[in-house]
């Protein structure tokens, strides 16, 4: 394996390589978001306000929790594979590939069964209105039944991105998202299957994406090759993946759990407020996919350069990505504030729902850029095997703080009071992570330079 001569992530112009990697990830995140956004748009337009609340609301929070947790686990595989790829360790790379893929299949099957069996108790825990319970449960059950396909695609695309390939996951998503749109219209508009039809359409599309990414890893990937005969779980390798992935999964799930808590407060404000929160959530997802694309980009970039022991490239990359994401946060916040009525009409024509959605944009959008600091610095530390800081920050700044805010500071609060917990928690998390980064990163850099010097001496 000889990637150092041709691997532009460890040799090319930093900002160019980050953007070359970033834009396919961003477009991929856009098409990934379209899976649920199309469900919401088609269902909201053709099946009504209650159906829209059913595919968002409590069911959306449960699905976000599950997906966030396993995406965090997948991040562990991405980091380990990126480090091995940067270090040109072919044997360890092959072992990590097969261990990660096997774990994704096994975990997906287990979680699918658990999700189908226990979705209704979770919906009840979130105080889902009785009028929405049956349709929400049907939507969650069908999507959970197909969860293994979602996890296979996500772990497979994460592996491809870890070795610097961000284009083919995009192409797969584009094709399967187009399939999802056609199937949504067929099941919801033609067959009148409502939320159940939207969920079936998503499952079929996700199964297709899982199949294609698996075939890509088996037949069309330079430097590694997936083989079903070599599937295994090596305890030591899985341990390394979980050491990074499990805290990341817990950190990400803290956001979802706190959002569930916020959802319980919003559920008591009526169907119109629930529908507005659901509709704004689809718009809000546009910012978070940009945020996630920067996070994945810097994780892969830092992971490979950390594996190759290139500390100066790591430092410059962090600085440049921070500037780019903060600027993007300010720009997207302005767009959502000024164009909220137009964007919300993509999901509903109800004037009351649109008015509430416009209010929500004013409470949330001006503060997006603040979270960029936490996201980029946490991703950097994670790629260098320091992951606990983001877990602790999310546990305290998101999970604990938002529970205290909703349950004790503003019980029975107004919509504005409830949603104020978001920007406040973003400030707390970013301050915590930035302080730790300034303390820890110089030590990491000195150690990398010492290893680099020792290697040169040998």
Describe the structure using short key phrases.
458 residues, mainly alpha, 86% helix
Number of strands: 0
Query: From the alpha-carbon coordinates, what is the Rg to the nearest angstrom?
Result: 22 Å
Oligomer: single chain
The ordered H/E elements are HHHHHHHHHHHHHHHHH
Helical/strand content category: mainly alpha
Q: Which residue ranges are poorly predicted, with pLDDT under 50 across at least 5 consecutive positions?
A: 1-5
Helix tally equals 17
> What is the global morphology?
globular
Average per-residue pLDDT, rounded, comes to 85
Q: Give the helix level as a range of percent.
A: over 70%
From the N-terminal CA to the C-terminal CA, the straight-line distance is 20 Å
Strand content: under 5%
Largest sheet: none
Account of the 3D structure:
- By secondary structure, the protein is mainly α.
- The protein is built from 17 helices and no strands.
- The N terminus is likely disordered.
Concise description?
This protein is 86% helix and 0% strand. It has 458 residues and is mainly α. The radius of gyration is 22 Å and the shape is globular.
Present the secondary structure layout:
Layout: H1 8-11, H2 14-47, H3 49-55, H4 57-87, H5 90-125, H6 130-145, H7 147-162, H8 167-190, H9 194-219, H10 235-267, H11 271-307, H12 311-344, H13 351-364, H14 368-383, H15 388-409, H16 415-419, H17 421-457
Helix pairs in contact: 2-3, 2-8, 2-9, 2-11, 3-4, 3-6, 3-11, 4-5, 4-6, 4-7, 4-10, 4-11, 5-6, 5-7, 6-9, 7-9, 8-9, 10-15, 11-12, 11-13, 11-14, 12-13, 12-14, 14-17, 15-17
